[in-house]
Write a structure and sequence with these properties.
Elements lengths: L1 H8 L5 H23 L7 H20 L6 H7 L2 H44 L1 E4 L4 E5 L5 E10 L2 E3 L5 E3 L1 E13 L2 E10 L5 H4 L5 H8 L2 E9 L13 E14 L4 E15 L9
Parallel strand pairs: 2-10
Antiparallel strand pairs: 1-3, 2-3, 3-8, 4-5, 6-7, 6-9, 9-10
Helix pairs in contact: 2-3
Length: 279
């Protein structure tokens, strides 16, 4: 379509007009348009190099191809053998660049991106935040404990050198809270999907969105009893043991993978002064 537009606008194809329109003007337009509305994140320098280099040879080819149409060439192509050879060579020349891209993508880019995605999945951890577990009694005398988990880091650098953010298609957190070995709260929370940065941002906001999504806080409520017996610190505050497990389906630019998390951690139970369980 771009070459057709060139021939429509310029009745006489010259090298200067081809370079000016197909090389300089289109490259400049693409260099502004794609980073603003298409390319997510900072545009790598090599992207501009490939863009301008490709348009240079595009312009030269558009100028040179009409010059191949000569009376001598037409006479030769009337011969079946010459016509068949020319058609075969033309198809091979046209298909070679596309064939190279598909071959290199399958043997170079995709394996490299798969390895990057697997490494990014392995980096992610799910842990309770340093803040103490909080608790508040409800009207029925039961207690709702609250644990805030932290998932991350979700950022990674893809094959193109662009920083992306891993998403989570599914995330299920379960666990319990124990005081002196006795369960006092049970946690079960299906977390809504955590989209990647590419799914919720535009090129203009992509970089800041990736930064915001690097670590995600996930509050989990754990209903239980108002039991306060258990180990206490020197200040009289109660120690509890938090156990958790989680399963997540992680989603990257190319791959998805299942990760399991789990652990046990001692926390200090922070009880509001107005809570019934503090008495």
């Amino acid at each position: 379509m771009l070459a057709l537009g060139y021939y429509v606008l310029f009745r006489r194809a010259s090298l200067a007009s081809a370079l000016g329109y197909l090389f300089v003007m289109l490259s400049a337009v693409y260099s502004w348009l794609f980073p603003h509305y298409v390319v997510l994140g900072p545009t790598p320098v090599k992207w501009y190099v490939v863009l301008w280099w490709a348009h240079l040879w595009f312009a030269v080819t558009a100028w040179a191809v009409p010059r191949l149409d000569t009376p001598a060439l037409r006479r030769r192509l009337r011969r079946p053998a010459s016509a068949c050879t020319a058609a075969t060579a033309g198809i091979a020349v046209a298909a070679a660049p596309f064939g190279l891209v598909f071959w290199r993508a399958g043997t170079w880019q995709f394996p490299a991106q798969d390895a990057i995605d697997c490494a990014a999945f392995a980096r992610i951890v799910l842990l309770p935040e340093a803040a103490p577990v909080t608790a508040a009694a409800n009207a029925d005398g039961e207690t709702d404990y609250r644990i805030v988990f932290r998932l991350g880091p979700r950022d990674y650098t893809d094959f193109e050198g662009v920083t992306q953010a891993i998403g989570a298609l599914t995330l299920q957190i379960t666990g319990d809270i124990r005081a002196a070995g006795t369960p006092i709260g049970f946690c079960s929370a299906p977390v809504r999907a955590l989209p990647s940065a590419a799914a919720i941002s535009t090129p203009a906001t992509f970089t800041i969105t990736v930064r915001m999504l690097d670590y995600t806080t996930i509050p989990v409520n754990c209903p239980g009893t108002a039991l306060v017996a258990g180990s206490r610190t020197s200040t009289g505050r109660m120690e509890v043991r938090v156990r958790w497990t989680a399963t997540a389906t992680l989603d990257s630019d190319r791959d998805t993978g299942t990760r399991s998390f789990g652990g046990t951690q001692t926390e200090i139970l922070a009880v509001p002064r107005h809570s019934a369980i503090a008495r």
